[in-house]
Amino acid sequence: MSATTDGGGIRAVNRAWQVLRAFTPERMSLTLTDLVRETGLPRTTVLRLVETLAGEGLVESGADGRVRVGTSLIAFAAFAETAWTVPPASLARMRALAAETGETVSLYVRQGTRRVVVGQAPSPNSLRHVVEPGDSLTMSVGSASYVLLSLEPPEERDVLVTRIAAECGSDPEALRAGARAAAERGWCVTHGEREPGNSGLAVPVPFPGGAAPARPPVLAVGGPTVRFTEEKIPGFVHAVRRCAEDIARTGLPPALY
Length: 257
What we know:
By secondary structure, the protein is an alpha+beta fold.
């Protein structure tokens, strides 16, 4: 049996990550049966992975037979927070944009075939778009996805679109068209693509003449479609672009550089 996955990764590492991802803030203690169900892996495989992860302190096996998150994750959590925290000045500017537009402001980067929220400022309205830092969303739909795709070199973009379409069962031509339109306009707005009644507008974070991050981010506002009227769109574009220019100067999470 090959030790690698179809994508060229190490199978054992992928499987260990499956076990760790089974734990959530609501489920910090799981039985071996829970882990088998959540990962879809054979029981003997899960048992070996738990023993290996426990040896590194990433999980702990209790006398009651339950598996819990381990103390080694404390150091990882502290490191991740330092690496991925949006600088205070940039976060303050995102909050100002949320107050100005009335919509939730999110900073996204691409991670493989998905987009990840690395920073967020909530809408002041009770009816609002809800995402949290660390959320991983599909790249098959949505304004932020098209803008992120538009920032990729054309040859790499085509390969990426093919992968996303295959994984999500989406139309690759629709993805290419969305990316082309975002590249031509320099921004993108979509309505009801990720979920009915929800709209989003995204722009790239510009870095003219400066030190661009290794992974280009995009800044987006999202909220109920009823508030994303044709009359409001130009104002949203102007406001989000100004904020993107500002946070390019005030800084992004250190891990992006």
